[in-house]
Design goal:
seven-stranded mixed beta sheet, alpha/beta, globular, FAD/NAD(P)-binding domain, 2 domains, binds flavin-adenine dinucleotide
Length: 361
């Protein structure tokens, strides 16, 4: 038996649909790539995005940075341009978007559409019925705060790199040792700012970026923390900050950029009752399907390699598997059925190992 899909048509009134073929959570690289792939194959596709605009991390965390590892862009491309190009492509493919809608829950229902059982996707605003869900909401939720700086309640403390065309003459302190902190350091130095990088432990950032920072005369404070911070003169507009460091230095600066990671979306995954990996990411099988049938997960949400092109590739693959399931249910697909059985056996073995571990603890 084959379940046919109806090709999308520009005159379609998507608002009158009783249910969607695919609902995608998150309009970052993974979600946008998945969405244009399902829409190109004629599936009605709705993307729900918690923020008010699309793009994910490249748009929100590094819009001005030139990304240099995307094939086909030898001169690099900014996060903002990349996001807007892929979004436009999805809009042209007739993907539908709802912004400011945050996923809260996904419930199974006893309703069906073309022999597929429907899921109910619940957001902070409404509920949508659909046949397949693709989770592409990244692992990051909100930036992790640094209490000693947060207590200042100062507009000069930033958790997202502010959009300043030229940092000329500005004294910028950057807190963090990961790739985001190092990228921000390079950006400030390239824009003629003075930069102090404060790294609590050893940096796990890229060695070549670290070299670029040192070559550009950026100062790096290793194994150092901010022990105290104060606003130097609250009465003066554009006033500075003074940071006391555990290495004994006192640092005067105009801006502090805190790049120490994010709180994860783990709570949402637990609420959805999805099997998780030990590192808090969502476990998927080789078809990017989670432990709940019909719910796929792609991009940073589960992956080890956190890159735009990997998020794109996974989004596209999950979209094609979802399409295959809709047009030819997996129980007609022998390989899929065999893999499902192997996974079930794997799950049972993992469960038994967990039970054994908890008995010996
Ligand atoms: C500073 C920095 C620099 C980087 N530089 C590079 C680089 O040079 N090259 C490269 O390839 N990669 C780079 N990366 C990594 C790359 O940005 C990520 O791997 C990629 O964005 C992952 O895409 P994604 O779609 O899985 O997740 P995200 O980009 O995180 O998108 C997820 C989307 O889901 C939305 N969302 C989250 N929760 C919900 C919810 N409950 N309901 C609805 N929507 C939700 C979010 O608002 C977001 O828009 C960098 C990352 C950082 C932090």
């Amino acid at each position: 038996m084959r379940v046919q899909v109806t090709p999308l048509d520009r005159d379609m009134d998507f608002d009158t649909l009783a249910s969607w073929d695919v609902v995608i959570i998150g309009a970052g690289p993974a979600g946008l790539a998945a969405a244009l792939t399902t829409a190109h194959r004629g599936l009605t596709t709705l993307v729900l995005e918690a923020k008010e605009t699309p793009g994910g991390q490249p748009q929100f965390l590094y819009p001005d940075k030139r990304i240099i590892d995307i094939p086909g862009f030898p001169d690099g491309i900014t996060g903002e341009e990349l996001s807007s190009r892929v979004y436009q492509q999805a809009v042209n493919a007739l993907v539908q978007f709802r912004f400011n809608e945050e996923l809260l829950d996904i419930q199974d229902t006893d309703q069906t559409h073309k022999e597929d059982s429907l899921k109910s996707v619940v957001t902070n605003r409404q509920m949508y019925l659909c046949r397949k869900v693709i989770l592409a909401c990244g692992l990051l939720h909100f930036p992790r705060k640094l209490p000693v700086l947060d207590a200042l309640d100062s507009q000069q403390v930033h958790y997202k790199v502010p959009r300043i065309a030229d940092y000329s003459g500005q004294r910028v302190a950057i807190v963090g040792g990961g790739d985001s902190a190092l990228d921000a350091a390079v950006m400030v130095l390239e824009r003629h700012g003075q930069m102090d990088l404060i790294v609590r432990q050893d940096t796990n950032g890229k060695a070549d970026t670290l070299r670029r920072i040192q070559d550009s005369l950026g100062r790096i404070h290793m194994a150092t923390e901010i022990t105290a911070a104060r606003i130097t003169d609250a009465r003066i507009a554009g006033t500075g900050l003074e940071l006391s460091l555990s290495d004994g230095c006192t640092l005067a600066c105009d801006l502090v950029l805190v790049q120490i990671g994010f709180l994860s979306s783990e709570d949402i995954f637990r609420r959805l009752n999805l099997r998780m990996n030990d590192n808090g990411s969502v476990a998927v099988d080789s078809y990017f399907e989670t432990s709940r049938a019909g719910i796929f997960a792609v991009g940073d949400v589960h992956g080890d390699i956190k890159l735009v092109v990997v998020a794109w590739a996974e989004g596209i693959q999950a979209a094609i598997y979802a399409f295959k399931e809709i047009t030819s249910p997996f129980w007609l697909n022998e390989k899929r059925l065999r893999d499902l059985k192997i996974n079930l056996i794997g799950d049972k073995l993992a469960e038994a190992a967990r039970a054994r571990r908890s008995l010996t603890q």
